[in-house]
Write a structure and sequence with these properties.
Layout (H helix, E strand, L loop, with lengths): L1 E5 L1 E2 L1 H19 L3 E5 L11 H8 L4 E3 L10 H4 L21 E5 L5 E8 L11 H11 L6 E7 L3 H10 L6 E5 L9 E2 L5 E3 L4 E4 L8 H10 L12 E11 L6 E12 L1
Parallel strand pairs: 1-3, 2-11, 3-4, 6-7, 7-8, 8-10
Antiparallel strand pairs: 1-12, 5-6, 9-10, 11-12, 12-13
Bound molecules: fe (ii) ion (2 copies).
One fe (ii) ion binds next to loops.
């Protein structure tokens, strides 16, 4: 079987690109399950229930990251969204949940776990390594396919997580940097890994945001709005992972980028 994992969706243009491209990607890769990180899907900052539902029209599960709570009211909405998860290593008192076990339309179950790194990131309540150990220990034995979205900045921390979970997760896939890395690999224990899956955002942009505005910020040091580029050529980055549902082991991972004019 195969699943697709797509990096951070940025704004309306990113959502529209997912809507237009994912059905074709499912056919192209013969993928039965699609996970997408939606942490920037609402105007570049966070998610809303409506944005998440839009992504869920073509994808199976939406993950998030450090921007999870950027939109006012999403803390109330997340409880109603059973296919949306936020990093598991946040305070226990925070709304939402950090993982879920979902039915694969092609048969069997898929666990999706979201975690956030601690290197060069906002503080998290607890250690992602300890947290994932606890989640894996509690999963029912019949759940073999386990997808981990590790939302982190440092390549070292992401590779450490992938190695830590080698043989215990089907895939450990990085998000947050919005730049797809060319290091996709199958680790010795059968875990697929990539440091970062990339983003769904404008080709001519800086991480999905306007080039002139970002340049002004860097060259002047002054704060300012960094608008999302919503139209033009939008690039969708992701990986396709081939795995054996009986064992949860991955046998192949392929990175891809596709473009669509919005
Ligand atoms: Fe992001
Ligand atoms: Fe992020």
């Amino acid at each position: 079987m195969r699943f697709i994992f797509i990096g951070d969706v940025v704004g309306k243009g990113g959502r529209e690109a997912v809507h237009r491209l994912v059905p074709d990607l499912r056919r192209e890769f013969n993928a039965q399950f699609v996970v997408v990180n939606g942490e920037n899907s609402a105007g570049g900052n966070g998610l809303t229930g409506a944005c998440a539902k839009e992504l869920l029209q073509s994808c199976d599960v939406v993950t998030s990251g450090d921007h999870t709570w950027d939109q006012k009211g999403f803390d109330l909405e997340i409880a109603t969204l059973d296919r949306v998860i936020r990093p598991a290593n946040y305070n226990r008192t925070q709304p939402g949940r950090g993982f879920g076990v979902f039915a694969n339309p092609a048969g069997g179950s898929v666990a999706v776990i979201a975690l956030q790194g601690r290197v060069f990131m906002k503080e998290c309540a607890s250690c992602p390594f300890e947290t994932v150990d606890g989640i894996l220990a509690g999963l029912p034995g019949y759940v073999k396919t386990i997808i981990v979205d590790f939302h982190a900045e440092a390549t070292s921390e992401k590779l450490a997580m992938a190695s830590y979970l080698d043989g215990r997760a089907t895939a450990v896939l990085g998000t947050h940097t919005h730049v797809r890395t060319a290091d996709e690999r199958i680790l010795p224990g059968g875990t697929a890994a990539v440091t970062d899956a990339g983003m769904v955002g404008a080709e001519t942009s800086i991480l999905g945001r306007g080039v002139p505005e970002v340049l002004k910020k860097f060259t002047s040091g002054m704060p300012g709005r960094l608008p999302v580029v919503e139209t033009g050529l939008i690039r969708l980055d992701g990986v396709a992972v081939t795995y054996d549902p009986a064992t949860g082991r991955a046998s192949a991972i392929e990175g891809f980028s596709r473009r669509v004019e919005i």
